[in-house]
């Protein structure tokens, strides 16, 4: 096995014990990037000499007996919508083609303090608002499994690069599935943490415009990885108490004792979009594997997830509405078409102009749904859902025509319901259908990341190895 194929946990242990060097690992990943990235366009702003210099400094720290972080010397990519000091932060926008970040975002700083070596910036759609990853500034990112299908979005570059073996870990962010959906499309693992567990603080100079309430309350930072153990390692490195984040926790919660066996409620359909047979098959397979692992599996009707998904299209889109002219002016044609169809979808539910009363009532209803879901989950239940009602979409399916565009928003109900509620969710690959990976989603109570990662591990233990896609 070449170094670029090895998991992050193994690399971190090998670097720590000097069995391998960070410089060797980073060089192997850079060689892999050079080999496959031209065809996939997953990473941008790759600076090999800087990465190798950082790796050599990491090796010198090991030799000096310095205290080492959990990711010491391990290559990681960061997303081009997330500030990393001195590196491009274009958001996939031509007008920001030369924009750079003044300081590290808190989650990037946490990765840096953990010892990560940054090797590149991952591609996104314009403004990171599509479930596809192409833009006029950097071009289109392809899925290593199929160039005809989306790698997901908005962390599509992160997922594509992981699946092709460019890095063992990637940072992403999620307000509507932007970590979980790309992970599912590319056959990797992605976790959306509980709001506040990973700091979402950004320096004021890199975010001079105050984000709307939904962005503040719903957007999270989190890791993507090729396996569950690596995702767990990266999440622990990224999690930090940070009161600069208005929703940050004052102290990291300790894992609470859990009743055993854990009950799994299987939620297949909430009446918004009918699941494709391949998606149902993946959920069936994952449910059986969890039962084999000793979980108590039961079918569950849960209409509150449908209600949360509908609230997503009200609260988020109304928060975005005042800034739409600026977004549409700076963005590309794909962004304009996608948002047009997405707002048409929301109008079918809420009317063309919902108004302030609906907005206020929506926020009030959200609180009730959070309480009800936490009561349902308690200490001994998690949920198993699809990641999407469909297998990975064909490229640019969201801008083909109005009906398809609206249907894609509907298909993402498992993605859009969770940010409204603020609960953690992990996407883990469970099946292959027509040559494409199909993921499932596990949802836990707030700060129950370890519980859903344990369940994801049980699925991974029984599944075939999905990545890296060696052919690239």
Automatic annotation (TrEMBL):
Q: Which GO terms describe its cellular component?
A: endomembrane system
Name the EC number(s).
3.5.1.13
Indicate the transmembrane segments per the record. Answer: none
**Top class in the EC scheme:** hydrolase
Q: Name one Pfam family in it.
A: Amidase
The UniProt keyword set, sorted, is:
Hydrolase
Top-level taxon:
Bacteria
What GO MF annotations does this protein's record show? aryl-acylamidase activity
Q: Where is the Amidase domain?
A: 24-452
Q: Which InterPro entries does the record cross-reference, listed alphabetically?
A: Amidase_CS (IPR020556), Amidase_dom (IPR023631), AS_sf (IPR036928), FAAH2 (IPR052739)
The name this protein goes by in its record: Acylamidase
Q: Which organism is it from?
A: Actinomadura macrotermitis
């Amino acid at each position: 096995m070449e170094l670029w194929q090895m998991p992050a946990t193994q690399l971190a242990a090998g670097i720590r014990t000097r069995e391998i060097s960070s410089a060797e690992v980073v060089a192997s990943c850079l060689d892999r990037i050079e080999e496959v990235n031209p065809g996939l366009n997953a990473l941008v702003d790759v600076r090999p000499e800087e990465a190798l210099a950082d790796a050599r400094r990491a090796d010198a720290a090991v030799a000096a007996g310095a205290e080492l972080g959990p990711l010491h010397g391990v290559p990681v990519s960061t997303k081009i919508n997330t500030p990393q000091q001195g590196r491009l932060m274009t958001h996939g926008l031509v007008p920001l083609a030369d924009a750079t970040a003044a300081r590290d975002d808190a989650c990037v700083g946490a990765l840096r303090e953990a010892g990560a070596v940054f090797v590149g910036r991952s591609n996104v759609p314009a403004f990171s608002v599509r479930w596809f990853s192409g833009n006029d500034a950097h071009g289109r990112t392809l899925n290593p499994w199929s160039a005809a299908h989306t790698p997901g979005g908005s962390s599509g570059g992160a997922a594509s690069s992981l699946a092709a073996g460019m890095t063992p870990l990637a940072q992403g962010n999620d307000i509507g599935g932007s970590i979980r959906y790309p992970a599912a499309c590319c056959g990797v693992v992605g976790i959306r943490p509980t709001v506040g567990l990973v700091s979402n603080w950004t320096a004021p100079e890199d975010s001079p415009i105050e984000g709307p309430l939904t962005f503040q309350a719903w957007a999270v930072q989190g890791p993507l990885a090729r396996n569950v153990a690596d995702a767990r390692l990266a999440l622990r490195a990224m999690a930090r108490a940070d009161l600069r984040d208005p929703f940050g926790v004052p102290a990291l919660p300790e894992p609470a004792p859990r009743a055993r066996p854990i009950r799994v409620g299987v939620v297949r359909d909430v009446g918004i979009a009918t699941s494709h047979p391949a998606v149902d098959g993946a959920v069936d397979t994952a449910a059986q594997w969890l039962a084999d692992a000793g979980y108590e599996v039961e079918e569950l009707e849960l209409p509150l997830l449908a209600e949360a998904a509908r609230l997503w299209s009200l609260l988020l889109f109304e928060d975005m509405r005042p800034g739409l002219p600026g977004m549409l002016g700076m963005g590309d044609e794909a962004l304009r078409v996608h948002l047009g169809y997405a707002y048409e979808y929301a109008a079918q539910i809420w009317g063309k102009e919902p108004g302030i009363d609906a907005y206020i009532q929506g926020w009030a209803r959200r609180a009730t749904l959070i309480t009800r879901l936490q009561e349902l989950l308690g200490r001994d239940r998690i949920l198993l859902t699809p990641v999407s009602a469909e297998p990975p979409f064909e490229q640019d399916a969201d801008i083909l025509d109005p009906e398809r565009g609206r249907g894609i928003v509907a298909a993402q109900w498992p993605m859009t319901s969770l940010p409204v509620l603020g609960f953690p969710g992990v996407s883990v690959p469970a099946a292959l259908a027509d040559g494409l990976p199909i993921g499932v989603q596990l949802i836990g109570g707030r700060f129950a990341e370890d519980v859903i990662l344990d369940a994801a591990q049980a699925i991974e233990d029984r599944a075939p190895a999905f990545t890296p896609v060696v052919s690239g």
